[in-house]
Every structure is written in structure tokens, then in C-alpha cells.
Design a protein that fits this description.
Chain lengths: 375, 549
């Protein structure tokens, strides 16, 4: 690190100390202010004067002159969707958020455990086939139903059909000493001439194993993320963040069952990736809270959290926006497989952002309060 | 490092990424270029059964050799059930000792079985486990040989878990043919037909469509058998399973006799000889009937065994059994030496060729079940790749437009960072020889969205610093320094999750995890480091803050 860099660091420390001390002076009556409002005023000298009473290190004037360089006489203008310096008291809503999330969570758990989550063939076994009739005459869906008992047929037009067959079909094939897709093409010949564009068949054995290893993967990655946050932050934040992640995942699965998005190997992968991604917003906020608490010499109150969330709100929302852009493209243009991942990310990133803003920090705060009361 | 050196580093690595991609190319997954993906389950239990059967067969042949002068009082002096082998009690004590010495079995005392007293031997547990293991590794070897015989380009064969094998055949047009060549056990056996006794005369009435017949057996006795037409093959197969026979005898069916009919034979449960001693198999044409048949050649051990069987059993029928079906059952007229035999079975020329190829490639040590199949036609693959690329490119473009609008020049630099990130991802994927799958494309699209998150975190921080009246240079420095902390934390958690997906996932999902993980690492270089270097290069000389960030 060069001397210059050291100086820069000093400047930064100065600046943050100033604003931090101000925050302490103004008691939390909802009008907490940082030094920024003053800065918006056209005369920055006032601010500098205000800073003067502070004990300053040697050679501060030189640094200050360099820091407040000529280009920024006026406050810089940015393209922004967000009002500057507006502090929203998110913590006020935390009771409602807890209630809303608990309800949503309970409902999603109900969906999951009552078996309402639509499972793909990866998990429950069975056959999915895209077939195309090679003859011009119309294929009747009823003809298909007649040769495939228990089939679910989707007609895409132009002789294109999607057939979904239950696990019993695979077992039937096995009993005949065949594999499922051969039996499928034999039965199709009874209806007409078909070209099989895609066929996927899964026996039951791997389905069960997959379900187990999927659950393990979730638990392990939750533990991994938890431990990392404990290591980097504090366990209270880690609890908050992990509750947030579990909430996001469970609610997303609940919504998948509501919107009939299949849980397949691919969407499961999406969910796992989501577990890693949805914690990002929580980290942005926790990081800012930690910074603020450090400046405030260990004080963690509602104002600090409100300020931290409000200040980081632009990046929290912008990061979601930039992920939602490709997500919508995947949903509307990507075709069947990509639509699944896209939808998982849509639900997950929206709820991930919501939980990061309204739940995660609030939870860390409330745990902190509880701990204090105990003592 | 000076700014110039860092700039050179950024541009040079970008050029390297591009050339690596151009040089190595991207391997496409099955879901993008079409092909078949199978998960096969090796039936270890049947491999073990075969092993026990063979041990029993060897014990039997020693028994026969030693005590051929003894009057045989029971039908079968050696019988096996699960992992137990029974030798008839009248064998003397020294035979029991010999069996224990020569074979990996434990003596368990005497046991009553079907009214006859037997010596009970048990096959060792560790041997059973080893046989199962060997069956899987052997099956992989045989599959490799077979797939090579048929010349599929770039096949992928890998073991998966306890007893499963994954096979990927890219670009294969006929999955049905692939399955017949993969799934066929091609277990060749020579079994003696038992016509000493008319076992089936007492059997209950067969279901409709199955007929009873009698013929003069090789020993001169009248023998009852059942037969049916091709269309009722399955009925006959099910019917024979319900017939109970004395220990040591098995009923098999074959397409022999009248045209387009199947009939039963009673054969010994223990085969005399199997295809493991086979050296070669070729197609030949029968000059009189003009039908193809497969000529087989044994190695020296096989030839010796074949010679012994034929000399000892002149006048009996020898069934040639392939995958549990009898192809022919000629009467042994004389001793055959030289180890050459033939399989005839009304083949078409293609069928005969396939059979010869499979026999050459070797028999599977155990049958396999198709546990999972994913076959994607090439047209659908093309369609998927088109849609995937359109979605990803549009997604990335819109993100680029947004970033350039919101963060102006810095936004444009962030877009360059994303491009570097994606190039890095593709380059690393192509170096690893990883395949680009459909979920992998989704991973790339999402990587673009996540990579700019890093820029947003840093840019917002820089804006905050600028509002605090810092000039651009320290604002960029501090923004990066502080933003970096958050960026690393956020990326490491995503990386943790991605690594777990990779650990647990199979097939296409691993592609997703891999793309995501590499993308996250790439973003640190592309979206964080590169865009910082560019910002220093392009923004710092500016006097005005307008449109900078």
C-alpha cells in the first residue's frame, strides 16, 4: 500500500466518523439525519466548518483540499430511481411481516407435506415423451388415451403431443421384459405413425435416491452458508439470514405448487442456486448494519437498522431488477426447461428481496433484544 | 501494479479467453445436440446367482469324474439355492474335504432338502460382494467394447453409485437399436437337454393358445412338450414359469420346430459351457438354405470342455442358449474337437451380424435394467439451443442497456466486465472439456444478471462516497475497497450452494452448477477487477462528474 492509499483510508475514516457521531447526537425520533442533507445545500463550506471542532490529525487541510476537489462543488447528479436520504422505517412493519411470512411459510409447508408440489419424473418416475405424428390425418387424443391408460396428453397442434405416463407404465414394461420407451413406441404404432422427438423415462429406484440426496444438498448448503455468515458476521445475523433463506426456498416451493411448476432435477438445481443467491441481499444489508454499529460503538437500535436498509435499498432493488431481466427472458423465450428455472428464480428473488428487507435484519434485532432481556 | 500493466493484463486475458474458446470450441450436451442418455442398473443379484451356479457346476463335474462308477440314486447330486450349494449325502467324507479345499465355500453340516440328505456348503459373503463389484466393472468394459463395435462418436460411459452405469451416446439417431445392443446380455450357454424322463406329462391344463405335443426323445422315451405360435410367445413364457420341476432342472423355450412357433425344453440347470471361453464369432451363409448363421470359435480351454461334453453325451441333445432362449438343440452325434460351433436361428443377415458383434464384444456378467432413459431428437435439440441462446442474449443485452442507462459510462464499463466474465466462463468450460447443457445456458444468463450485481454494489458505494464530497479517485478506491467486502461475502455464499449442487447433482444439473460456479469466479475478475481498471483508465482523467457514474 502506498502512502497515498494510506491517506485515502484516513480520509474515509474521518468522513465516516463525522457522520456517525452526528447520528448519535440526534436521538431516534424518526428524524434521524446523516450529514448528507446538509451536503445537499449549495455551500459545502458550512459542512467543513461543522467538522472543524473535531480533533483532526496533522496535515488535514491538505488532505481536505484534495478530497473536496473542484469537480464536486455541486452535489453530483446521478440517474436514480430512488429519493436520496429518505429513511423508511422498515422496522415498524416487522410485526406484520412476521405474521405475513409465517402464514405464507405455514401454507407452503402445508402444500409440501400434503404432496401438492407437482413432482417431475425425475422424482416420481414415469415417462415424458414429445411425439409428432408423421401422417397428415388428425390424431385423436382419445385414441392415445385408449392405448395408454392413465396418460396425460397435451396437444401442441400440428400433430405434436406431449405424453406423460405414470410410473406404473415403466413397471408394466419391466414386467414384460422391455424398457419403457420401447413399449411406448410399440403402443404408438397401434395409433398411427409417430416420430419420437424426445423421450425421458425414469424408474422408481433413482427417484427415491434423488429425493434423499436433494434434501441432503439443501441441508448441507444451509449449514455451509450459515457457518460462513457466522464466521464473517455474527451468529444473530446468521440466524436471521438462514431463516430468510429457508423462508425463501419454502415459499418458492409453495408458489411452485400453486402455479403448477414441476419440481424436477433442473428446478431443484435452480432452488439450490437460489439458496446461495437470495442470501446476497441479506448480506448487503447486514454488512451495512455491521458498519454502522461499528461506527456507533456497538449500538444496535431500530434507527440504525432502518438507516442501513434505506441506504442500501437502491442496490437491493437494482440487483433484483438486473436478475429479473434475464429471468423474464428465460420464462418467455427460453422454452420448457429454461422456463422452469426462470420461474423458480422469479419467485425466489422477489421473496428473497422481501425477506432481506423486512425480516432478516429485524430478526437479528429481535434476537438481540431477547438476549438482553434474559441478562 | 501500474495502471498500464493492469490494463494490458485485462485486455490480454480477454484476448486469451476468446482464443481459447475459438481453439477448443464448446462441447454441447445431449439436450442440445440430441442423443441418448441411459442409466442402467446392473443386476448384481443375478451375477451372484450365476457365480453360485458355476461353482455348483464345477463341483458337479468333479463329482461325476470321481464317482462315475457309482450308481446315481438321485436326479441331481449337486443342487444350489441362493448362496447355498448342496452335495448329495452319499458322497464320501473325503469328497467334502476336497470341495472345501478346492472351492471358496464353507461347510455347514448336513441338511434335508426335498426328502434327500445333502451336505450343505455356503458361498462366502466377501466373495459375493466381490462378484457383484466385478459384475459392474466388467459390464462397463463390455459396454465399451460393444459401443466401439458400432462406432458411436464420443460415447461416455461411467459408473454411478453402487450398481448403476451411465451411458451417453451423442447424436445417435436410433435409440431402439442402441438399446438392443446395450441391453442384451448376450450370455451364451450350452446346456444338456434332459429327455430321460417325461416331466411335463402330469402338468395341469395350459391356458388357451398353448398346445401340448409329444415326440420321441433322444433316449427313445416319449416326451411331452408345450408349444405355441409367435403371437402367444409371452403367454407361453409366463406359463412355463408356473411349472415346478425337480431341483437341477429348468424349463426353457426356443423358436424351434415348426415355423413361427415356440416350444419348451427341459434342460439341466447348470450349463456345461458358457460364452466366456469364446474367442471369435463370425457370420456365415448356409449354402443349402441360403440362411445366415453365426460360427463361433472357442479358446483352448473352451475347446477342451466342448470336446469332453460332446464325447460324454453322444446321443443326447445339446441346447445352445442365448439370453435364456434356446436357439437350437442339435443331437450330439459324435465327439467334436477343435472348438468350433455354430448358432442357427432363422436370422436375417442384420440380426446375425449384430449377434456376432455382440458375442465378440463379450457377454455381460449380469443382465441390466434400463432405469432411466433420456433421448432427445436432433431437431428438438436444435430448437432448444436456438431458444436458449435467444433468451440468454436478449437477457444479457437488456441488462447491458439498463446498466448503460443507469450508470452511464461506468455502466458501459460494467457491461464490458460482464462480457469478460462470460468469456472467462466459456473459456474455462471449454478447457475443462465440460459440456454446455440447456440448464448451463440458463446458468450463463443468470451469471450475466448476477455479475452486474457486483458492479451495482460497488457503483452505489462510489455514489455514496461522491455525495460525501470525495473526489472521484478516492471514491473509486473506497467504493471498491468497501464494496469488495460485500461482493466477496455475497459470492462466496452463492459458491457454497453451487458446489453442493455439483456434489449431489447428476447429468445436466451439474452443468448448471459448474457454469454458475465458474461464472461467480469469473465475475470477480471480469466485473470487479476489470471494470475497476477501466474506470481508473477512462474516468480519472475527466474533469467533470457528469455522466461518469
Amino acid at each position: 500500500m502506498s502512502d497515498k492509499d494510506k491517506l485515502k483510508k484516513k480520509i474515509y475514516k474521518e468522513a465516516s466518523k463525522d457522520s456517525g457521531l452526528k447520528g448519535v447526537r440526534i436521538e431516534g425520533d424518526g428524524t434521524a439525519k446523516t450529514s448528507e442533507p446538509e451536503l445537499v445545500k449549495p455551500k459545502p463550506e458550512v459542512v467543513t466548518l461543522q467538522h472543524q471542532p473535531q480533533p483532526t490529525p496533522s496535515a488535514p487541510s491538505q488532505i481536505r483540499q484534495r478530497a473536496v476537489a473542484p469537480p464536486s462543488v455541486e452535489a453530483p447528479k446521478f440517474v436514480s430511481f430512488f429519493p436520496r436520504n429518505k429513511i423508511i422505517s422498515f422496522m415498524k412493519f416487522r410485526k406484520i411481516s412476521y405474521l405475513f411470512s409465517s402464514l405464507l411459510f405455514a401454507l407452503s409447508l402445508f402444500f409440501i407435506f400434503s404432496g401438492k408440489v407437482p413432482l417431475g419424473i425425475d422424482f416420481k418416475g414415469g415417462v415424458v415423451a414429445n411425439v409428432k405424428s408423421t401422417r397428415t390425418e388428425q390424431v385423436k387424443i382419445d385414441d392415445l388415451r385408449a392405448v395408454f391408460p392413465g396418460v396425460f396428453v397435451q396437444d401442441f397442434g400440428d400433430g405434436n403431443f406431449l405424453l406423460r405416463l405414470p410410473l406404473s407404465f415403466v413397471e408394466e414394461a419391466k414386467a414384460l421384459g422391455k424398457d419403457a420407451s420401447s413399449l411406448l413406441s410399440e403402443n404408438l404404432k397401434k395409433v398411427g405413425e409417430f416420430q419420437i422427438l424426445k423421450v425421458e423415462s425414469v424408474g422408481s429406484v433413482s427417484g427415491k435416491e434423488l429425493r434423499k440426496s436433494g434434501v441432503y444438498a439443501f441441508i448441507l448448503s444451509f449449514i455451509g452458508i450459515f457457518l460462513y455468515i457466522v464466521f464473517r458476521f455474527e451468529w444473530k445475523f446468521a440466524v436471521g439470514a438462514i431463516v430468510g433463506v429457508v423462508h425463501d426456498i419454502v415459499v418458492t416451493i409453495g408458489l411452485m405448487s400453486l402455479f403448477d411448476v414441476e419440481l424436477s432435477l433442473v428446478t431443484l438445481g435452480g432452488l439450490l442456486a437460489l439458496a446461495g443467491y437470495s442470501v446476497n441481499d441479506s448480506i448487503i444489508i447486514s454488512d451495512r448494519i455491521r458498519e454502522k454499529v461499528q461506527i456507533m460503538r456497538g449500538v444496535l437500535n431500530e434507527d440504525v437498522i432502518n438507516k442501513a436498509i434505506s441506504e442500501t435499498l437502491p442496490r437491493t432493488i437494482l440487483t433484483v431488477l438486473t436478475i429479473l431481466i434475464p429471468v423474464f427472458c428465460l420464462i418467455f423465450l427460453g422454452g420448457e426447461v429454461l422456463k422452469g428455472i426462470g420461474t423458480v428464480f422469479l419467485f425466489g428473488s422477489i421473496f428473497g428481496t422481501y425477506s432481506s428487507i423486512f425480516i432478516v435484519a429485524a430478526l437479528a434485532y429481535d434476537i438481540n433484544l431477547l438476549m438482553k432481556k434474559r441478562i | 501494479m501500474g495502471l498500464r500493466i493492469r490494463l494490458i493484463l485485462v485486455f490480454l486475458s480477454t484476448v486469451i479467453f476468446i482464443s481459447v474458446i475459438a481453439w477448443r470450441g464448446m462441447k454441447l450436451g445431449l439436450d442440445l445436440k440430441g442423443g441418448s442418455y441411459f442409466i442402467l442398473n446392473v443386476r448384481k443379484d443375478l451375477a451372484v446367482q450365476k457365480y453360485v451356479e458355476r461353482l455348483a457346476g464345477e463341483i458337479l463335474s468333479i463329482y461325476k469324474e470321481k464317482y462315475s462308477d457309482r450308481s446315481i440314486q438321485v436326479e441331481s447330486p449337486v443342487v444350489f439355492v441362493d448362496s447355498s450349494i448342496y452335495v448329495v449325502e452319499d458322497a464320501p467324507e473325503d469328497f467334502v474335504k476336497e470341495v472345501q479345499k478346492k472351492f471358496p465355500v464353507d461347510y455347514k453340516g448336513k441338511d434335508l432338502l426335498g426328502g434327500v440328505n445333502y451336505h450343505h456348503f455356503e458361498v462366502r459373503k466377501e466373495d459375493i460382494r466381490e462378484v457383484g463389484e466385478f459384475a459392474v466393472s466388467q459390464a462397463i468394459q463390455v459396454l465399451r467394447n460393444r459401443i466401439d463395435e458400432f462406432g458411436v462418436a464420443e460415447p461416455l460411459i461411467a459408473r454411478q453409485g453402487e450398481s448403476q452405469i451411465m451411458v451417453q451416446l451423442p447424436g445417435l439417431l436410433d435409440p431402439a437399436k442402441a438399446k438392443s445392443l446395450i441391453g442384451r446380455t448376450a450370455l451364451l450357454e450350452f446346456r444338456l437337454v434332459d429327455e430321460e424322463f417325461d416331466y411335463l406329462s402330469q402338468v395341469r391344463l395350459p391356458p388357451e393358445g398353448i398346445y401340448k405335443g409329444t415326440e420321441a426323445g433322444a433316449g427313445g422315451k416319449s416326451i411331452t412338450y408345450y408349444w405355441t405360435y409367435d403371437k402367444d410367445y409371452e403367454k407361453l413364457a409366463n406359463f412355463v414359469q408356473s411349472i415346478s420341476l425337480p431341483a437341477g432342472r429348468t424349463i426353457l423355450i426356443g423358436r424351434i420346430g415348426r415355423e413361427n412357433t415356440w416350444r419348451t425344453f427341459i434342460v439341466e440347470s447348470i450349463p456345461q459351457l458358457t460364452g466366456e471361453f469364446l474367442k471369435d464369432a463370425r457370420v456365415r451363409m448356409n449354402p443349402t438354405t441360403n440362411e445366415p448363421y453365426v460360427i463361433i470359435r472357442f479358446d483352448s480351454t473352451g475347446a477342451e470342455i466342448f470336446e469332453r461334453i460332446t464325447s460324454e453325451n453322444v446321443g443326447k441333445k445339446l441346447a445352445i442358449v442365448l439370453d435364456g432362449k434356446i436357439f437350437s438343440a442339435p443331437v450330439i452325434r459324435e465327439k467334436i474337437s477343435g472348438g468350433v460351433g455354430s448358432i442357427e436361428g432363422r436370422f436375417t443377415i442384420d440380426e446375425a451380424r449384430e449377434l456376432a458383434a455382440i458375442l465378440r464384444a463379450g457377454a455381460l456378467p449380469a443382465p441390466m435394467d434400463f432405469e432411466e432413459e433420456r433421448t432427445i431428437g436432433p431437431t428438438l435439440g436444435e430448437d432448444s439451443i436456438k431458444k436458449g441462446i435467444v433468451a440468454s442474449v436478449l437477457g444479457a443485452t437488456l441488462v447491458a442497456v439498463f446498466m448503460s442507462f443507469y450508470y452511464r459510462i461506468s455502466g458501459v464499463l460494467a457491461v464490458f466486465g460482464v462480457v469478460v466474465t462470460l468469456l472467462f466462463t466459456l473459456a474455462v468450460l471449454s478447457i475443462f472439456g465440460a459440456t454446455l447443457t440447456l440448464p448451463g445456458i440458463a446458468g450463463i444468463a443468470l451469471t450475466a444478471g448476477m455479475a452486474v450485481d457486483n458492479n451495482i454494489i460497488i457503483f452505489e458505494r462510489i455514489r455514496e462516497e461522491l455525495i460525501k464530497r470525495l473526489s472521484l479517485k478516492p471514491a473509486i478506491e473506497i467504493g471498491h475497497k468497501l464494496g469488495m467486502r460485500t461482493v466477496l461475502d455475497a459470492n462466496i455464499t452463492t459458491l457454497i450452494a453451487a458446489l453442493f449442487i455439483f456434489q449431489f447433482g447428476t447429468g445436466p444439473i451439474r452443468g448448471f452448477a459448474l457454469t454458475l460456479s465458474i461464472g461467480i469466479l469469473g465475475a470477480i475478475f471480469g466485473s470487479v477487477y476489470s471494470s475497476k481498471v477501466l474506470m481508473e483508465w477512462l474516468l480519472l482523467p475527466k474533469r467533470e462528474l457528469k455522466n461518469v457514474i
